[in-house]
Amino acid sequence: MRRTVAARELDDEAGFTLVESLVGIMLITIAIFALTAELTTYVHHQANERARTSAVRYMSTSVETARSLPASVLAQIPVGTIPVPPKTIGGITFTTTESLQRCSVNDAPDACTTTAADSAVLDTRVRITVSWPDGKVTRSVTTSTSLADDADGSYSPTGSGSLSTLVGGTGTATSGVSVSSFTASPTSVGVTAAGAPQSALGLTLTTVGLTTATTGIPVTWTDDNGSHQWTLTGGPSSWTGTIPAASITKVVASGTATLRFAATVPGTSALSTVDVTLKPGVTIGSCSVAPNPVVLTVLTRRTALVETLTCTTTGLASTDSVSVSYASGSGTGTKSLTSTNGTTWTTTLPVATTMASSGLSETFTFTATRASDSVSATTTASAVLA
Length: 386
Fold this sequence. Notes:
Layout: H1 2-12, H2 18-67, H3 71-74, E1 80-82, E2 87-89, E3 92-104, E4 122-134, E5 137-147, H4 164-167, E6 178-185, E7 188-191, E8 201-208, E9 217-223, E10 226-234, E11 238-243, E12 257-263, E13 272-280, E14 283-290, E15 307-314, E16 321-328, E17 331-337, E18 344-349, E19 361-369, E20 376-384
Parallel strand pairs: 7-13
Antiparallel strand pairs: 1-3, 2-3, 3-4, 4-5, 6-8, 8-11, 9-10, 9-12, 10-11, 12-13, 14-15, 15-18, 16-17, 16-19, 19-20
């Protein structure tokens, strides 16, 4: 009887059962995972806050740098997006986008217009966005500000008077700088299928009132690949530049398109612009001769039937021209084709038209020419002589 009681006492003091141990381990594991998730979230939040603080500091520095620019430098900066290289801070790469606008002082913060009536009181605005990667998402901070311009010779009203008559207070008299002319050559040009002009574009700007202190005039334009800048050189009154055709991309499928160049001249209140008309390139699709073979009369090299010559083109109007040339006896014959829509062109060779003096085939050479810019295209079609 004593041994039975002792055995029971030993069983009661044996410890946790296997099930109790497994349940305990599971509860501890769940608690650890929960704490780990909370810790991971906290660490990520702290890292993101540090990145945001760095981005705000970097953005503020950029804003203050922009505000410190003198008027002469502001005048040289073209409107649009300003390229800024990425910057790495604390192992994080920050991407900065800076854009500049010149708007009417009457515009709301989310609007920007420039009219003739507002050209003397433009408000220069800069918008800075700093972005950084955060896992699979991209976070950013953005700010906008107006850049004051109180230096002599920039953004002054044209004509008589001063800024004080426009906005109150003590203003600066007009600088005396003006633009006499801004021209492009050619004023109309065809583009290839890839959108590149078929010739370089020359720009000429004539100014009054600038000195040798100005070494260049920035010119900007926007095409299919975004905004671009070129600098006109020369001076102090005559400025020129040639923009290579490869620097421009403006695909024109049909009709015409306008490419506008804007020059920022220090001491003037508004951009000077010039437009170039872009047209599709001239192409000849297909040309045919019917009937083919061309039947010749017995013992002669003359046609026995009326021959109809047909071509299809792009980039032409019905007022432009398509011509054909062919061997005729010992010389060359020519004919003009006509069109009612600028796309399909036809002409006829009457009976008894003399063909090539020898051989069993005739080659017809078709040339399409646009009158406005002399752009042309050429193709050939062959016919059997029978």
